[in-house]
Fold this protein.
Amino acid sequence: MVCYTGRDACRSVTQLDVIKAPQTMKNSASAAAAQPDNDFLSTRFKWTIESFSKLKSEKHYSDVFSVGGYRWRVLIFPNGNNVDHLSVYLDVADSAFLPYGWSRYAKFSIAVIDQLDSNFNVREDTEHEFNKGEEDWGFTSFLPLSELHAPGRGYLLNDACLVEADVAVHRVLDWRHDSKRESSLCTTIKVARDEDLNQIGKDFYFDLVDFDKVRSFLVQKKMPFRNFKEEVAKAFGISAQCQRFWLWAKRQNNTYRPHRPLTHEEEMQAVEQLQEVSKNANFAELNLFLEVELGQDLRPMPPPRKSKGDILLFFKLYDPLEEEFRYVGRLLVKRSGKPLDILTKLVKMAGFSSGEEIELYEEIRFEPHVMCEHLDKRTTFCTSLLEDGDIVLFQKSPLVGNTEKCRYPDVTSFLEYVHNRQMCSTKSPTQLEVGDGNRLTNTRSSIPLPTDLSTSTVATSVLTSLSLPFLKENSLSAAHVKIVDEIFRKHGDVVEKVQVPDPAFKTFFLERLSSAVELFRSQTATSITAEVLEKLKNMIQSLALQGVKVDWLESFYEKVVASNKYALGLIHMKQLEEQISTAVILLQDLKDQLVEVKDQLDEVEKEIGNQTGDSAKILDPL
């Protein structure tokens, strides 16, 4: 048996409060306090079980928590353990991996909280020596289900149940179970599945998964990996032959992606050997992706054979109208194939109508800035440098003239918005990093502005003229500080009409505005492409929709379009002139050849005399 932690169908929120003094334990019928025992270390574990009525499993475990070096978890039977009562127990989380003859003694109480009236909290306490035959202990008939669900009680307020567990263990660990020895014998394997990738667009947007929210397995380091697959089969109901595991790798651009599948030889090795392989591949821990293929009957089937010519791609879908982002699936494709080959599958995965036109982008990185590249549907995956674990983003092709209805009409603009919003909401005010001569040490990184502007010569010189109080509390990319200063020197009312409850959004608008200026400055009238012009147009339109005064930028954009059109026209005219010059030279050459041929004909005509008129006559030497 492998113990595991993770979030099941319902979302559970846990909290640990370390209690310095031993916790008093009381019964629902008695409030008598127990005398503190300094030989014990106590912890109160709080567990909020949301969507309680929607629990489908017979039993439900909390997250694992530690007391005195021991690992515990709370076990409940929402509909009773063969009784019409709520059943609750304290469980040894790692019992399957403890050495032979282990035991641990604990005093504990478990309570279900009445969220309307604490006088009706139900708490039971006991003590027990846990061992191999008694890994869990508690109360089968803890609280009648009729009382638990009673409308007049607060046990399930807003369908959330609050459970508290006070656990006390000896400060001196039992010699039969040394936590350091346990740590040296066991390791943790975290397994991400397609279900976990559904976090995308809810808890986060970039990369594929948050490993703090996936299923964890505590296993012995010496365990053969093939045995671990059997334990996974028990946990997920997926037979070992239908499992294909992938190692994860941290790339040079700081993204974290599935890197390659385990080989048959590696699956025969011990877990600790794979852990070493993962470390050599820049892994922080043994994190795995479980690839499972489903047949037409939606049952797991053996995964298709993967050759060197195949790559595993992951797909995310963006809806610009709803501003929604979600994971829709993965595909094993041929390196020599093209996006055109899989468009029908992607349209089906997204739930679009057959024949819907879509645009594809590759998610390359998100730090220090978002980087997404448009994918040519007619170019092979190999030519586009796609590899195992890469992420392809797609959306409906924007309709001409319809982008004004969307704040963020394409994937890139939306992810830039998300990235900047996260920067504004997570960074605290600190001083700018200043190098020699008060020059920013890293102009490409996002650096928070100082609370006290006088502490930075750079910040003072750039921002005192702006009089923007919200910038003191939020961050702006250091590379854009100078651009913002230039903008406000010429257009001081740029964000006056922006009505947002959170000043951080104004900072985001300035970041986006300065990005547009920066993008303009990286181009020339002749080098700027139609794609860049379209991106700038969308950026300006989205800012205008938010009330940012960008009429001056719109005017400049129109001039750039006209200049680009004029510059391209000049180039085209020059090309035509060159072609004409070439054609004239070629024509003259042809004329010269024609004259030469005529001269040759004249010479021949003189030699053959009047026979030229009989050129069609059959030749007969006799």
